[in-house]
Amino acid sequence: MTAPARLRSEPAIAPIPTRRRRHTDLLRLLPYLRPYRARWITMVVIAFVSLGATIAIPLMTKAVIDGPVQHHDQRGLWVLGTAALGVGVLEAVLWFIRRWLVTRATMGVERDIRKDLYARLQILPMSFHNQWQSGQLLSRIMNDLSTVRRFLSFGVVFLLLNVTQIVVITGILLAMYWPLGVVVLLSVAPITATVLHNQRQFTVLSRMAQDQAGVVATGVEESALGLRVIKSFGREDYVFDRFDGQVSELFDIQVRKVRLQARFWTLLEVIPNLTLIVVLGLGAAAVGSGRITLGTLVAFITMMLSLVWPIASLGFLLSMTQESMTAADRVAEIFDARVDITDGPVDEARAGGRLQLSDVGFRFPGNDGGDGSEGGDSAWALRHVDLEIEPGETIALVGATGSGKSVLTALIPRLYDVTEGSIRIDGTDVRELSLPALRSTVATAFEDPTLFSLSVRENLTLGRPDASDEEIAEAIEVAQAQFVHDLPFGLDTRIGEQGMSLSGGQRQRLSLARAVLARPRILVLDDTLSALDVHTEALVEEALGRMLHDVTGLVVAHRASTVLLADRVALLEHGTITHVGTHAQLLATVPHYRYLLAADDELDDGAPPDPVWDTDDARAELRCGHEVASGAEEACRDCGAGESTETGREVRR
Ligand SMILES: Nc1ncnc2c1ncn2[C@@H]1O[C@H](COP(=O)(O)OP(=O)(O)OP(=O)(O)O)[C@@H](O)[C@H]1O
């Protein structure tokens, strides 16, 4: 499968390696406005023209009072009155156009950033996703982007507009009658000081609230996915209490935010009203002594009142700016996360399928002892792993739980990169291959199969969208997933979230069919058959065995029956492959292997291992999941296949 071109292209926001000051994060999102710049600039121009109309109306009022009203000029009154009305209507129309223009532009910006963010999440390595709660990602991709959109559509425009309005009107007021202008100017100072004082505290609270919203989203997601577990243990109350705690914490932070805003807003309401009282008193005295006209005083007060909203909203707009800076910061954390698994230069893998692991070591990021040292052997999930699999050969990977089998299989398609050593496919290091080339060469079916809220067909063709109906049918047959034909709409049946409406075994079989359908040269099965009953497993293995002749296979096996799919077996102990050989050889010579697959009770009394068996005999006895001492063809009393044909010895589990 080739990765969509969009995923491989760089987002409009260029990732930068180190974290820096927050306001630059918001600026870094501005390039997203580029495709909409014509609309956006028109919208800003219109906003400024309508600001002109807002300022013109009080000036026209002054002209009406000092001119036609004072001189009883009826005609002049009509002319100026109609002009003022025209300006008012124009202002309203311009507001409408501005809103209409801005909605499309900023919605488009939000959509574009969201798409790039999603693409980034797809590219980011498993190590990133291991460290991030999904709710945090969800709240960034949904809430934070909406916050940024609101700022770009509304906040930034009004911030510019209001600051301009405050500066221009204060200038006009000073020009009209400077003593009153100074009073107004003085009233702006405490407001500015308050705004700056609150800004820092508000930013901290905004960030806390946004992070806590991510925690709440994670809580909802986890309880929805884990509903069965919660119900089966009867722990609804416990989960509710935990959620209650998370929501209450969010509530507390929001209340602290509101309290801060309330103090702030009170000040913003009180100061303009006090200023108005002073201006009215001083203005009336100035009119009385003839230093200004009545028209000037009315225009002055009208203009001064028109300052109340821009000044008051300045606080709100600055809060919004803070919030969107925090949101942009959180979004940038994803864009800036390191993508350490990147494309190699080779676009096409060779046709063979020879897989070679040389001295492979792997340590999870952060598992270095905390002091930059290697952290001792326990820090390594895998160490000194050597393994070669020839084209068409299948190796079973056997090991105790936690020995590193899944980690090893994840290294082949580069879900993680090796920490040391190398993995080669047909002689080419997997890091040299482009990711699409590598991932079309290797297909994996996982033990815990994830299915998507899509139709069965879409789920199956995830690795190969162009698969024909015949190929789909073939893959279904290999995976013994014929049950899909009995679903209400067959292959077009939409399966629920994570395929929840299917049983575990059904999901595993679909996951297997999906991997088979991808037609890989290397097929990795990570304990894919663990949820199947022995009979279904036998059927799948028979069909899969035929398919495995043509591909290189690495099959993680916990059960002896699965081992029988393989030509050879590799035993993984504590992150290292200690033995490689046929099943029969390992069974005969390696007590730990026998213990893992057969729970051999002779191990306890120190008896020597059984003699080496013929491979076919061993397969016969183990296909049903039970073990006989030696030489049996189809001997198993437990599952009704008869007694051991040669020795007649007891059949043991
Ligand atoms: N994301 C992770 N971060 C840190 N350690 C991890 C992570 N995933 C797995 N491990 C550790 O790596 C080791 C190997 O895990 P792995 O899943 O490969 O075991 P496994 O052999 O597949 O086990 P099982 O048979 O139970 O599936 C374990 O000790 C596990 O705790």
Please identify the top-level CATH class of the largest domain. Mainly Alpha
Question: For the terminal residues, how far apart are their CA atoms?
Answer: 43 Å
User: Biggest β-sheet, characterized?
Assistant: 6 strands, mixed
Can you identify the CATH superfamily of the largest domain? ABC transporter type 1, transmembrane domain
If you average the pLDDT, what whole number results?
79
Strand order of the largest sheet: 6-7-8-3-9-10
Number of strands: 10
SSE pattern: HHHHHHHHHHEEEHEEHEHHHEHEHEEHHH
Looking at the overall shape, the CATH architecture of the largest domain is: Up-down Bundle
Question: Helicity level, as a percent range?
Answer: 55-70%
Form type: elongated
Ligand kinds:
adenosine-5'-triphosphate
The percent range for strand residues is 5-15%
Number of structurally distinct domains: 3
Structural class: alpha/beta
Q: What can you tell me about this protein's structure?
A:
A hairpin with a 2-residue loop joins strand 4 (420-425) and strand 5. With 653 residues, the protein is of the alpha/beta class. Helix 3 (37-69) runs parallel beside helix 6, helix 4 (74-123) packs antiparallel against helix 6 and helix 7 (178-225) packs antiparallel against helix 9 (236-288). It is elongated and about 115 Å long. The relative contact order is 0.08. It has 20 helices and ten strands. It has a six-stranded mixed beta sheet. The chain has a four-stranded antiparallel beta sheet with strand order 2-1-4-5, with helices on one face. The protein has three domains: 5-336, ABC transporter transmembrane region fold (Up-down Bundle), CATH 1.20.1560; 355-581, 3-Layer(aba) Sandwich (Rossmann fold); 603-653, no CATH class. The chain binds adenosine-5'-triphosphate. Belongs to the ABC transporter superfamily. Siderophore-Fe(3+) uptake transporter (SIUT) (TC 3.A.1.21) family. It comes from Flexivirga aerilata. One of its GO terms (molecular function) is ATP hydrolysis activity. Residues 355-599 form the ABC transporter domain. It is a multi-pass membrane protein.
